[in-house]
């Protein structure tokens, strides 16, 4: 039977330890088994005792039932992805049938006139995510470097706890904070740029009226939300870098920063890339906080200060007020886009990190 | 030579300072958020928040009793459905499944946990709201259960992996059937960790707003009927936050403080349980 290996997937001693009980204690085992009270009250059937140990474990009727039950749980969890894809596709069929896949690239969203172009929302999602990642990725990587390589362990533990608590704060509350604290700050910054004597407002990136709400505010909030993910994955990746790598750098006379920039970061760039993908996947579907600070205007503008709209926030805002079934279907098709993109990004990131975890020479627990 | 040597040292110091600065900036948002929350939320925290129903704008007073009770109901129902299912799946993955099957399932859970919550809300809308023809507390619970399921599975599975294999082997040596080993030995040894996972999952879904918009829908009156629309705390905070009324903003901050105290408290509690558990495992 293959049971020992399936039950004990990563026990180092599994191969060595299993055969001995089967061989050596098959006979005395059946005599020892009855006395303990636990199996006696649990066994629905008294028969299978004389069987060898390995077979016995799966041969049990109760075992089979339990295996089936838990297996059903597991299948339902995994099947949820398929169910989600099925229902979202099913829900968006009317929309696709009405205006075809090409509508994705049309910039006109006008439900009352049956026009459902998704381009402005795709643009808004991409732009805000880009801003968020542009802030969160360097910040997260530098912070991870500080936590792993520079700061004393206690302080770095406290900092990572604080950042992980940030991940626990619901999106809607960050949005609340965004409306009343961040947006005024962003507005002040925008007014400063607007008035600056250097003529910064001539740049397309800084053009437009300083309103506070818009891509920049949404991007900053997204950066705050992505940071915990990027930081914790990057930290994990840096911890996996073998100590020998650092020692080799020091042995060559490198300073600490040289060992970080020339030996440690290049060694772990794949993991950092995975962390970035994970953060991006998280950021794309963020709804509440973005909806509260982006201004909800379907337009395509290059300026950081302009208002916009994202896929998730248009679903949140218009779903319950959709004028027709077709509009609902169009919104569900936007959800389908989010679903597919997030599955692809998450899948890619996880595969990457998985591959990395298997291939890197460092054992997981070592510091 | 000497100058180059000094230069790279200086440059190293500068870059390290940049890293430290980044760490400082990284913790800044949490404290800024908590600071504003405490400043604005504490003043609007009152017993009325818990005991009164919402008032029309312009009238003084009013509370969030319906939303607090609604959150408890919706989250509680989701928890009752999601946790046994998640723990069952995790037991299957660690105790019964072949390694390849287990890793495929784990991958599915990882992907599932990354699906945006608003999409899960749309899914619950399609599965529950459309066939029943009305918004309901129950559909909100379904959406939240979908969201919490992968979280429960992942944390439980990780905790079950931490249980030493010698414990399972000891169980087998006593002739205990595998299901009994899983239930009374492995799961029991991992109980504090599994509890941690539950707390984390519950605190994750307690703040979910996006899926509530088109499942639970919101309701300004007190309702505990699972078949009727219901208000949840995060949803009500959202509605109040985007309203133009100062009174409602104050209430939103008060509600936010309640929610954060609950969630951060639960998260810290779960961390403490985990720390304590790992310490007792190591010793």
Helix content of chain A: over 70%
Rg over alpha carbons of chain A: 28 Å
How many structural units, i.e. domains of chain A?
2
Query: What percent of residues of chain B adopt helix (DSSP H or I)?
Result: over 70%
CATH topology term of the largest domain in chain A = MetI-like fold
- Biggest beta-sheet profile of chain B: none
Work out the largest interface and the residue count of each chain.
A-B, 116 and 107 residues
H/E element sequence of chain B? HHHHHHHHHHH
What is the CATH homologous superfamily assignment of the largest domain in chain A? Answer: MetI-like
* Distance separating the two termini of chain B: 53 Å
Mean pLDDT of chain A: 82
Which geometry of chain A do the CA atoms define? flat
Q: Give Rg of chain B in angstroms.
A: 24 Å
Short précis:
Chain A has helices at residues 3-7, 14-17, 19-24, 26-32, 37-42, 53-59, 61-99, 119-150, 153-168, 171-195, 215-240, 243-251, 256-267, 269-284, 288-293, 311-318, 325-359, and strands at 109-110, 115-116.
Write up what this structure looks like.
The complex is a heterodimer of chains A (367) and B (283). Chain A is 71% helix and 1% strand. Chain A has helices spanning 3-7, 14-17, 19-24, 26-32, 37-42, 53-59, 61-99, 119-150, 153-168, 171-195, 215-240, 243-251, 256-267, 269-284, 288-293, 311-318, 325-359, and strands spanning 109-110, 115-116. With 283 residues, chain B is mainly α. Chain B has two domains: 2-44; 50-282, MetI-like fold (Orthogonal Bundle). Chain B has helices at residues 2-44, 47-51, 65-96, 99-113, 117-132, 137-162, 165-173, 178-189, 191-206, 233-241, 246-282. The N and C termini of chain B lie far apart (53 Å). The mean pLDDT of chain B is 91.
């Amino acid at each position: 039977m293959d049971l020992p290996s399936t039950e004990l997937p990563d026990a180092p001693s599994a191969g060595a330890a299993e055969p001995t009980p089967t061989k050596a204690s098959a006979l005395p085992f059946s005599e020892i088994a009855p006395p303990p009270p636990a199996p006696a009250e649990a066994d629905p059937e008294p028969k299978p005792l004389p069987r060898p140990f390995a077979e016995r474990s799966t041969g049990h009727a109760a075992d089979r039932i339990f295996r089936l039950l838990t297996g059903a749980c597991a299948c339902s969890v995994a099947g949820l992805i398929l169910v989600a894809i099925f229902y979202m596709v099913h829900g968006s069929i009317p929309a696709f049938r009405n205006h075809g896949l090409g509508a994705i690239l049309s910039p006109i969203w006008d439900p009352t006139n049956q026009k459902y172009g998704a381009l402005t929302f795709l643009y808004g999602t991409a732009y805000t995510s880009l801003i968020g990642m542009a802030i969160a990725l360097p910040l997260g990587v530098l912070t991870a470097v500080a936590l792993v390589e520079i700061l004393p362990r206690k302080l770095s533990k406290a900092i990572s706890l604080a950042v992980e608590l940030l991940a626990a704060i619901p999106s809607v509350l960050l949005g609340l904070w965004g409306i009343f604290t961040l947006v005024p700050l962003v507005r002040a910054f925008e007014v400063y740029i607007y008035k600056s004597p250097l003529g910064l407002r001539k740049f397309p990136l800084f053009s437009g009226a300083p309103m506070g709400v818009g891509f920049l505010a949404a991007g900053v909030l997204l950066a705050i939300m992505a940071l915990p993910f990027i930081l914790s994955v990057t930290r994990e990746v840096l911890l996996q870098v073998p100590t020998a790598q650092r020692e080799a750098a020091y042995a060559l006379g490198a300073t600490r920063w040289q060992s970080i920039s020339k030996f440690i970061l290049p060694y772990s760039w794949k993991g950092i890339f995975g962390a970035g993908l994970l953060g991006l996947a998280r950021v794309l579907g963020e709804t509440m906080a973005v909806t509260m600070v982006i201004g909800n205007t379907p337009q395509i503008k290059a300026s950081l200060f302009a208002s916009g709209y994202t896929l998730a926030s248009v679903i949140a805002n218009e779903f319950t007020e959709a004028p027709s079934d077709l509009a609902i279907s169009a919104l569900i098709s936007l959800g389908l886009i989010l679903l597919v993109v997030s599955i692809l990004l998450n899948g890619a990131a996880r595969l990457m990190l998985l591959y990395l975890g298997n291939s890197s020479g460092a054992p997981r627990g070592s510091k | 030579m000497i100058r180059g040597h000094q230069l790279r040292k200086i440059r190293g110091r500068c870059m390290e300072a940049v890293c430290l600065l980044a760490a400082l900036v990284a913790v800044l948002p949490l404290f800024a958020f908590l600071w504003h929350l405490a400043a604005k939320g504490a003043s609007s925290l009152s017993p009325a928040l818990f005991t009164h129903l919402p008032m029309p704008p312009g009238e003084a007073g009013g509370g969030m009793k319906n939303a607090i009770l609604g959150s408890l109901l919706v989250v509680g129902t989701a928890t009752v459905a999601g946790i046994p299912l998640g723990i069952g799946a995790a037991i299957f993955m660690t105790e019964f499944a072949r390694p390849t099957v287990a890793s495929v399932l784990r991958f599915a859970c990882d992907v599932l946990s990354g699906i945006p919550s608003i999409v899960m809300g749309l899914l619950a809308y399609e599965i529950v709201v459309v066939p029943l023809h009305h918004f309901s507390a129950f559909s909100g619970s379904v959406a939240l259960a979908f969201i919490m399921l992968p979280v429960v599975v992942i944390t439980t599975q990780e905790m079950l992996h931490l249980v030493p294999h010698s414990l399972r082997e000891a169980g087998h040596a006593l002739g205990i059937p595998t299901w009994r080993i899983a239930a009374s030995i492995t799961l029991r040894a991992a109980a504090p960790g599994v509890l941690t996972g539950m707390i984390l999952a519950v605190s994750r879904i307690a703040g979910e707003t996006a899926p509530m918009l088109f499942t639970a829908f919101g309701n300004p009156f007190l309702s505990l009927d699972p078949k009727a629309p219901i208000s949840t705390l995060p949803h009500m905070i959202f509605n109040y936050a985007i309203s133009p009324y100062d009174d409602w903003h104050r209430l939103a901050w008060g509600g936010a403080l309640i929610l954060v105290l609950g969630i951060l408290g639960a998260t810290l509690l779960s961390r403490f349980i985990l720390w304590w558990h790992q310490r007792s495992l190591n010793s």
